[in-house]
Amino acid sequence: MTGFDCRVAFAEELISLAREDERIVAVCNDSVGSSNLVQFAREFPDRLINVGIAEQDMVGVGAGLALSGYVPFVCGASPFLTGRALEQIKADVAYSQSPVVLCGMSPGMAYGELGPTHHSIEDLSWLRAIAGLGIVVPADPDETRQAVRWAAGAATPVFLRVGRFKVPAVTGDSSFTFGTATRLRDGDDVTVVATGTMVSRALEAAAEAAEQGVSVRVLNMSTIAPLDEDAIRSAMRETGAIVTAEEATTTGGLGAAVAAVVVTEPHPVPMRMLGVHREFAPTGSTAFLLEHFGLTAADIRAAAIGLARADA
Amino acid sequence: MLVADPRTAAAWRRLRQEIADAAPARRRELLRERANRSRATDLHMIGRAGLGHVGGDLSVLDILTTLYFAVLRIDPEKPDWTDRDRFVLSKGHTAGALYTTLAAAGFFSSAELDTFAGPMSALNGHPNRVKVPGVETNTGPLGHGLPIAVGMAVAGRLSASSRHVYVVLGDGELQEGSNWEAAMTAGHRRLANLTAIVDRNRLQQGARTEETNALDPLDDKFRAFGWDVRIVDGHDHLALLDTFTSARGDRPTCVIANTIKGRGVSFMEDRVEWHHKVPTASQLETAVAELAR
Fold first, then answer.
1. What ipTM does the predicted assembly reach?
2. Mutate which of B1, B81, B138, B167 to disrupt the A interface (most A C-beta within 10 Å)?
3. Structural domains in chain B, sorted by start
4. How do residues A48-92 score in pLDDT, each as one tens digit?
5. Which of B64, B141, B33, B238 is nearest to A92 (CA)?
6. Domains of chain A with CATH codes
7. Of B129, B152, B181, the CB nearest to A64
């Protein structure tokens, strides 16, 4: 699989920030390697707080550091960070308004064959229910860098979903703005709203659909909360149909978030939600599972063309 | 966000000085009086609101009074002062005890206590740092305070600050596993700038701790996790003061403060039902009279 592991860009940017600002610290749960913090640890041994395999402690320690003026990047595999420490994320970080950057590493089904215990398809849904927590899902290395830099200065609780599954560079010259979707391709017949690993696939789908005469708009929804509702409304008005694509459960994830906007408008439009529908994954690699759950470019293209035609 | 009450803050400063200068017997008397006034205020507040956690409020008030009137390096008029000592009330359900103490120190006007738990009050049933000056973090779900305090102690060390971090834990709360994750971290890192105080009243909401999921030998547990452990009478102000201010070693300190839930009111003491029962008007009258003795 070619492409980029976003954890590399994440770590490089974090180190660069840490050189500029001594308030930057990293907190992790024995995940120095999997969070790609080896170099950070080498350069800033005192500023890497590894609490061991203890996610509740990890998030609480992060909150304590944030409340003392530090900018903690709290890093752990997303399933354990969000699942094990959900109450700490709610009470210690979001409700307490502690400016912690929660970094959910290797999310979605990045751990493939390790199975549903290690998949993190519920994270977006769980976290979207928590008030005051920004949720950012970069689509490629460049956007990851920009999001890391933004989060360090945001002074607000943030969850950053940092992908391990390799993705091509897709965001090009577009710049990351928290809370704003980026239109990576314009189109009139249908809009694909994609996030994270699905963005490159959505672009591929749009290019293929164009060959079949269907004009597909692609929105990179890199901020899941707060959602760019204006971009959704424009898509409704200007393209008349919406497909969402996420490497996550559609129950409460991006699909549900977009649908909540669509159905509360005076003139809702047809929608399809691509993702995982309340199901634990079978055994298989990440690539296999994305195919299994209908999350390939071909699946996105078919969904987009189907809706565009239904709407025509 | 509530604001400081300068007049009360000035009175707090005078009383702190008087307590610091007094001979031991008088110091004990001043702290006892101050704590019992807070107890009476707390009971009135809970009676008025129709809710609260009476038993735990009364058990922890001697600890809080000793900290706020004789130990913590704080300034109620500068709640964000960088090098202030940090105090975290992990047993957030005893917010009433914290509110009455903070009001007595002038962090906000005691008139605010009349709003406790009322619509739109800053004084929620569990403390909120965003609204109440002096509250360092929002607690309520149990087992959250110690990890946060550990983070604060790590921060203090990174900043080479002399500030000290205090956290009060309920004893029943120690059944939450997150405490032991944090206890390991504090022991491993030898966080000598951290003191955890266990309000050891031996009762949890529904029954005795030892009948529910036993904590003893609690001192051995903390020692095994790398802490210095001291056991004191949690209602003996001078013993508490001595424990908080005596020389510390190279590791975190756990103070097991043996207390009585409902302390100071005969019919509430050591009674499980007074965890969050609300006194009637006549019970309130009797209780306040007992506290004034």
1. 0.96
2. B138
3. 6-292 (3.40.50.970)
4. 999 999 999 999 999 999 999 999 999 999 999 999 999 999 999
5. B141
6. 6-162 (3.40.50.970), 182-311 (3.40.50.920)
7. B152
